[in-house]
Structure formats: structure tokens, C-alpha cells
Amino acid sequence: MILSKFVDELPIPPVLKPYRKHPYHTYYKVHMTEFKQSLHSELNDTTVWGYEGRYPGPTIEVESGEKVFVKWINNLPAKHLLPVDYTVHGAHLDVPEVRTVVHVHGASVEPESDGYPEAWFTKGFKKVGPYYTKKVYRYDNCMRSCTLWYHDHTLGITRLNIYAGLAGFYLVRDQQERLLNLPCGSYEIPLMIQDKSFNKDGSLYYPRQPEKPVPELKTSIVPEFIGDTILVNGKVWPYLKVEPRKYRFRLLNASNTRFYRLKLDSGQLLYQIGTDGGLMEYPIGVKEIMLAPAERADVIIDFTNLEGKNIIMTNDAPASFPTGDPADKNTGTVMQFRVTLPLSNIDTSVIPSYMGPLPKIKEKSASKIRYLTLNDNMDKYGREFMLLDNKQWDAPITENPKLGSTEIWYLINLTTDTHPIHVHLIDFQILDRRAFDVERFKKERVIHYTGPSIPPEPQERGLKDTVRANPNQVTRIIMKFGPYTGLYVWHCHILEHEDHEMMRPFVVIR
Ligand SMILES: [Cu+2]
């Protein structure tokens, strides 16, 4: 079933209103529920899960330094919307089927409020996971202005909870950003890009078995999920009417597995001004933007003098990445911009020539180097799965950085996939990527480089919390751990990998 393109208008999630606002803190309540929503006008309404009755959830906007408290409330039904595999870690039959815990991706928060995968809770907080500590999360928002997102992070069912709709934007603002005179108000729009597949009746399709089924299981996790339909802000192939002027878009890949290489079919440039962790030093004009799951790009698109034009945002990344099938005319199409609105005011916003300093972390400031492999392995059902440092989720903690210390992590990818590796709590900088001899490494456990050190791409030269670790390469990242101590996680953000052991705890120690 192929749906028509550009028949529905792009929805823009509303900004969430606080439950209470005090001079020194703000308090929100966010309910998770099941409901029906129209994802395309040719499709029956789809049962989804969402925050505050909508998918994607409302956008949470905070000021840098604002103390924010959020009570995340699970009002979901007891039965999951999607097929649960009870054999993956944390999802066994000894726990309730529907569990939630919320993580603000990219935020620096105390460990009790980070949404630890085993800190889950059920409806009414009736049952809670072993690491659950409290109902109301606290966010100090000590970051600079940046594009973050909140989403579910429950052990063993993250892929299903996010696919069901549990995701939304979380924007941090600050004075530095305001002084830049970027496009704002109705000219600043978040774009959450996802792929899904649908059954004929309009319900969400998520596979019950991999291509090579596991006969002894009714439901088995799949190694990847590749949808045949692209949605932006919860609408299939939407259009957006724009004025002939500059717009700022917060691009987010919130897909389970799919990567996007985004372009405009007009051939015009996208002006990237920010990465995962906020504004870059200088804007860069780029023809295409690569986004792995969970990566963000803050871009300005200039529609000036394009009155009457229709511009399509396209995607040409293969799925899975990088060796999977090429995008087709459906998955190669993301959304359409229609320059049909009259200019309501003179556009005085700018693409700044300089956004502000972003000091590089020096390699010699690192006190610890960690060599961490990305492996594939086989589980007891004969399913291929991916591991970090060849260890499963339950293995003893091995990454234990000291508070305030700087570390360099060598991500040594021995698999054939690109894995978007996400580290909680901190932002990092990418040092370089370098080709190496994988077979020799497997035999001798020594890195033999086969190519020169490749600096990060221009679009990655900013603060990052998710990095593409490509096959046959060592990807090096550098970061300073703090300001909190305690238990966090790092993981692959391909959700099917994350749920199937490609996640590890780490602890920041005093
Ligand atoms: Cu992965």
C-alpha cells in the first residue's frame, strides 16, 4: 500500500505548558497514553502511544540554567501495542509487559533523573525496576542552547516504545543564541524524521520475526527495522507552506535503524549552524546532511526569491547503513516545502558569520585511553547480535571514568555496520576516524592502521553526543566526565541493537 505524498500538512508539536512556574524552578507533568491519531489522510487513524496525548510529544522548551522538574506519568494499557520478545535482556516474563522510563537525550543530568534503563515504572508506579528511585525527575539544564529530545529508554523494549510514538523535542535556549538573530517564532520548526510501515487497516506494522525466523519463539527481536514510509513530526510525507525567507529547522533522526542523507532537490545549500550539543563556531553551507539515528543538525534554509517553488527534501542513504538497499522513490522522499505564503514581514534574521567560541579538548589533557571494540556475536537462539567490547549488558562495569577527568575512547568497529554510538551525561568531540586491518586485529588484538587519520566531517565539528562508528575504522572521541557522579549508560542508538545487548553501563566515580 503506497500512500500519496504531500497531501497532509506538517504538524508542529505545541510547546508544553508548565504545571507550575516558580521564580527558581518549573514543574511539568507529562502523561503517557494510548490513543488514535491520523498519520495520513488516506489511512485509518493509527493507534499510537504518546506524551500528553500526541505523537510526537509536545516540545519542552527550557532556558539554560533553569531548574526543571518533570513528573513522567505512565497511563498506558497493560498490554503492549507491538510484539514483545521475552527473551531479550530486561523483557523476560518476570516483569510487567508495559514499562516506561524517560531519557532526555543529550542532557547532562543527575543519574537518578537520567532514565536508567532499569529504573522503569508501570502505570501508577505500581511496579518499578530495580534501579528506580523517584517519581519526579530533576533537570538542571547546565548545557548551552541545543536541540535535545526526550524518549523512552526501557530495558528490552526501547525499540517498541519509541516506535509506538514515545518521543518529543526538548530545546534549551540561552542568551548567546538570542543575540544571534536567527530565524525564530513561526520561522523556527523542529523536524522529527522517522520511518514506519503500516498494515492495511492503518495500524503500525512491526515485524514479529527476523527474515530467518526463530522457530521456537512466537516473537523474536529483529536485527534491524527498516520501514517503507517516511514520517516527519508524525505525518507521512507531509508538506509545509513557507514564506520566501529564512527558516531554522531542528533536524532529528528519531528512527529505529534508518540513516538519512538529506538534500534539497532544488540543489540549494543547507546552512548548518549546530550539532547535537548546540551551536558550532561557524555556519557551514552543505549540499547534504547525514543523520544516523539520534543525531541532530540545526540548519537554516533560505527560501528567499523562491516564490511559487516546491522543494522536496530527499534521502539517499542505503538502509541498513552503509551496505543495505538503496533508498527508492518512497524512502528517498522525506517532505515538501511549498513557497506559497506571502512574505508577512521583511526578513531581518541572519545566518551569522560566527556563533561563538568552541574550545577544542586537547588530546594531551586525556588521562585515560580506552580501547573498545564493536563486535558481532551469536546468542543462544542462533541470532546474530552486536556487543560493545564483546560484553553483554549484565557483565560487570568496566568503564569507570573519574569525575572531572578527560578520556579518549577508541571505538574499534569489527562489524560491517555503521553504529551510532551514544554516551550519556556528556558531550564529546570527534578526534578522527582511521581505517585499520580488521582481520589482523581479530587475530593479534593490535590495531594496524591502513590509512591516514581522517578528521571529523565539517558537519561534525561541534559538540556531539552520538557518533557514527563506521565499519573497518577506528573512531576516536574525547570527553570530560562530569559534573555528576554515578551510573549512566553508553550504547548503540540503532534501537534493535540497543535492545539486544549493544548497551553497557558506565559509572563516573569520585
Ligand atoms: Cu548498532
TrEMBL record:
CDD domains, sorted: CuRO_1_BOD_CotA_like, CuRO_2_CotA_like, CuRO_3_CotA_like
Q: Which family does it belong to?
A: Belongs to the multicopper oxidase family.
Domain Plastocyanin-like: residue ranges: 45-176, 206-321, 374-508
**UniProt superkingdom:** Bacteria
Q: What is this protein called?
A: Multicopper oxidase
The family database entries (Pfam families) matched by this protein are listed as: Cu-oxidase, Cu-oxidase_2, Cu-oxidase_3
Give the classification, highest ranks: Bacteria, Bacillati, Bacillota, Bacilli, Bacillales
Species of origin: Polycladomyces subterraneus
